[in-house]
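#onboarding

Welcome to the new folks! Below is a worked example of what a typical request in this channel looks like: someone posts a single protein sequence, and someone else replies with the predicted structure as tokens. Don't worry about understanding the tokens yet, we'll cover that in week two.

Example request:
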Amino acid sequence: MALRTRERPFFNPSVAGPIFMLSAALLFTLMNVLVKLLPPAYTVWHITFIRCAGGMAVLLMILGPRGNPFKGDRIPLLMIRGCTGSIAFFAWITAMRQLPLSTAIVIFYAFPAFAAVFAFLIYKERIGLREAGCIGLVIIGVSILFDFHLAGGLVGQCLAVVAGAFAGLTVTLVRSLRKNNGPVVIYLYFCLMGTLATTPKFIMDPIVPATMGEWAISMGIVLSSVTAQILMNQGFFYCRGFEGAVFMSSEVVFAAIIGILFFCDPVSWRFWAGSMLILGSVFALNHIKSNTASAYDQVGDNG
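Example response:
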């Protein structure tokens, strides 16, 4: 009789992981577009408060009165993950407002490399040369797609690095938390910590949407971010932190496509070359992951 060395996931990880992550990336792209449509009066404090407080309200309404919605495993780590995610989002929005978009995007989307570094530092998790090559090609692809050149002020550049580093740390922690926590409670703690951090500033300078359009944009930010984050958190059940980060880098391709379709951005060789490198790296990493999982299963079946 064949012996099993581990329990199989309900879904095939080589299929489920990319599907969850690509779906999340598409919705995060929508969220970023909506953020850009907000009037300039909405500061980064207002935007973060809208996302976090609105997200927490939506989740609490969905969960209803069924017990304690904040009950989870490793509460301190859930709170730390909430803080790191809030810092990443705050720094990212601020960097986008201080830097040319191309500079901010390329610096930030080095976060798969940060995720790999944190995975090694925290969990002693090593990556192979092929996985490292995929991460490198993603960064090169983003640089080509957005015609990268270092521009803008030093503060903005540092904030983009901070955003990328904390995003890498966040996805690493999510991978650990996902073992014993559902995707909803992980995001709920992000919303809680972000709300606590931004409420004092929001109270000092409150903004209430003045038109139906602003209400629609605000609700769109909340709903797209809630759905995207839950999908991403679920995806980390099927892939490691740096793998999920590489899959999430497809967000820049979706952003470029939206720019072409709705904002009349030109279609240049950079779009095709950069997109092919990014998506090729995503498919290559998933192929490596699939082969590794198959080999592991084969050993277990023959053991």
